[in-house]
Amino acid sequence: MEGMTSFMPLVLIFALMYFLLVRPQQKQKKKREELLNSLEKGDKVVTIGGIYGTIAKLGEKDIVLEIAPNVRVSMQRGAVGTVIVEDLEEEESEDEETVEE
Description:
Layout: H1 2-37, E1 44-47, E2 52-58, E3 62-68, E4 71-76, E5 80-83, H2 86-100
Antiparallel strand pairs: 1-2, 1-5, 2-3, 3-4
């Protein structure tokens, strides 16, 4: 019985590391995969490198991003950092204007 109690702090440390490091990282990875799988033609995105553009064409592993009129760049799907949601931005700015009045 004494041997089991000496391993208890070690087990607690591993459990703590799992809940503080591994589990959140898995959730973040799953969320990123969902983001990349939900991309559609016409979505406005920002790449990891900070380039703003609109998706002109979607492939299985790559996309064509229109960064200016008639300027298209081909890149990997994984290069997309975030999708810009304009509706939420407009609603937030309208809410702020109403509060200020």
